[in-house]
Automatic annotation (TrEMBL):
<dbReference type="Pfam" id="PF03596">
    <property type="entry name" value="Cad"/>
</dbReference>
<keyword id="KW-0812">Transmembrane</keyword>
<feature type="transmembrane region" description="Helical">
    <location>
        <begin position="108"/>
        <end position="128"/>
    </location>
</feature>
<feature type="transmembrane region" description="Helical">
    <location>
        <begin position="173"/>
        <end position="191"/>
    </location>
</feature>
<dbReference type="InterPro" id="IPR004676">
    <property type="entry name" value="Cd-R_transporter"/>
</dbReference>
<feature type="transmembrane region" description="Helical">
    <location>
        <begin position="40"/>
        <end position="61"/>
    </location>
</feature>
<feature type="transmembrane region" description="Helical">
    <location>
        <begin position="6"/>
        <end position="28"/>
    </location>
</feature>
<keyword id="KW-1133">Transmembrane helix</keyword>
<keyword id="KW-0472">Membrane</keyword>
<protein>
    <submittedName>
        <fullName>CadD family cadmium resistance transporter</fullName>
    </submittedName>
</protein>
<feature type="transmembrane region" description="Helical">
    <location>
        <begin position="67"/>
        <end position="87"/>
    </location>
</feature>
<feature type="transmembrane region" description="Helical">
    <location>
        <begin position="140"/>
        <end position="161"/>
    </location>
</feature>
Amino acid sequence: MGQTIISAIGVYISTSIDYLIILIILFAQLSQNKQKWHIYAGQYLGTGLLIGVSLVAAYIVNFVPEAWMVGLLGLIPIYLGIRFAIVGEGKEEEEIIERLEQSKANQLFWTVTLLTIASGGDNLGIYIPYFASLDWSQTLVALLVFAIGIIIFCELSRVLSSIPLIFETIEKYERIIVPLVFISLGLYIMYESGTIETFLNFIL
């Protein structure tokens, strides 16, 4: 269980760093503290929809006859990690931030929900192979970690929104942290599914 918790924390943090930046911007724009619950709810709904799609896809993938074939999905986060290291987020994050700055308070909930989904499209490439590598009990543990992670990230963002230096530091090192975690996750999935062992046996 400890290994599952650690891997779930790594997955959530690595896929949510861009959310952290967006949330900091959102909290910095709030005129009323009570509006923060719109952000919380939007994050939960948006993330929940992404995870729901991932769980369905992971369930289908589990019908693959050989476990090591499922491990090939680990190549997806490895690819995403390498791409992120080379080209970064690109223009998509800039467009998301521009939309955040234009959003109105009464549309905050749906704005956060839609932007969570829009900015989390690549997360499916991480979530699907990750959940496919877990059994049902490990999946429940991972979902609990994600649920707690959303609360922590929202509160952390609210606090950091008043500290510009922190925001700049996170943005600066995002391009190092995210690829490192993504690639490690991909290798972990391939190892757990026996894919690496299968390849080594085939080569040797």
